[in-house]
Amino acid sequence: MSELRADQRAVIGVLGGMGPAATADFYAKIVQATPAQRDQDHPRTLIWSDPSIPDRTGALIGSGPHPGPQLAAGARMLERSGAAVIAVPCNTAHAFLPEIRAAVQVPVLDMVLETRDRVLEMLAPGGRAGLLATHGTIRARLYEQAFAQRGEPLLAPSGEQQERVMEAIRQVKGDPESAAAAQTLCSAVADLAERGAGVVIAGCTEIPVALAGAVGLAVPVVDSTEVLAQAVVRWALSHSGREQDEETERWSA
To answer: Which residue intervals make up region (Disordered) (predicted)?
Structure first.
């Protein structure tokens, strides 16, 4: 662990609230991902949890308002407050990543690409990954496009199974400890495994909340929340120092 003072470490900005339980889970995973022996070893973190951001899936399927301007405004607020890097712990919100990035001068990490790269490291030669995600993420083809960049196929649930997955996600938003949601998602993992998936992506940040403590899953499930937390901690620790601190003070002025 670096001997840098806490106030010399890069500040992480979290553009969250989509939903609140997923944001809380993300921060817990930032803490877990940090190699720390004391409070002062952890990166400074700004969390903007804005549950009023319009529903991302609703926008992508044409049934709700566009969330891009509000996402961009949240990113600008984090930058003005001193964030040196921004993480967005919502897979579906990554459909609007270009708008978020255009609004700020600091890096905004890509949860989808980080997760894709982790999965490809895990897959056996010729193996296929499966995806559990919202209707919006499926409609926007976020993961399909990311895997296609590497020439890799991706399995998604059937129409009926996808409806059950989406209902489970809604249940988690209302009750993070929903046993029914956990059961549905475990079944969806098993279904993808039967269809040939060697690894399944938890491509919605509510899914790891629901599956916390789940045992006996048919195949490994990659937690996109955890992948993003590890990526943003690596970024913060590798970009910390006096020069970074001076930049942070400039952004805060």
So the answer is: 35-68
Model's pTM, two decimal places?
0.91
| pLDDT at residue 253 is higher than 60 | no
CATH of the domain at 38: 3.40.50.1860
Helix (H/G/I), strand (E/B), else coil: 15: strand
- Could you tell me which of 131, 228, 214, 211 has the C-alpha nearest to residue 171? 211
User: Is 13 found in the same domain as 102?
Assistant: yes
Question: Of these residues, 22, 88, 90, 106, which one is catalytic?
Answer: 90
Instruction: Reply yes or no on whether 186 is catalytic.
Output: no
Burial class (CB in 10 A: 0-12, 13-18, 19+), 43: buried
Tokens of 224: 């996109």
Per the residue annotation, which of 12, 142, 204, 211 is the catalytic one?
A: 204
Identify whether the C-beta of residue 155 lies closer than 8 Å to the C-beta of residue 195.
yes
Q: Which tokens is 11 given?
A: 């500040």
**Does residue 181 register a pLDDT over 60?**
yes
- Fill in the amino acid letter for 219: V
Expressed as residue numbers, the domain containing 220 is: 111-225
Residue 126 has pLDDT above 70, yes or no: yes
Residue 101 inside a domain? The answer is yes
Alpha-carbon distance 90 to 79, whole Å? Answer: 19
| 168/210 Cα distance (integer angstroms) | 8
Q: With contact defined as beta carbons under 8 Å apart, do 202 and 219 qualify?
A: no
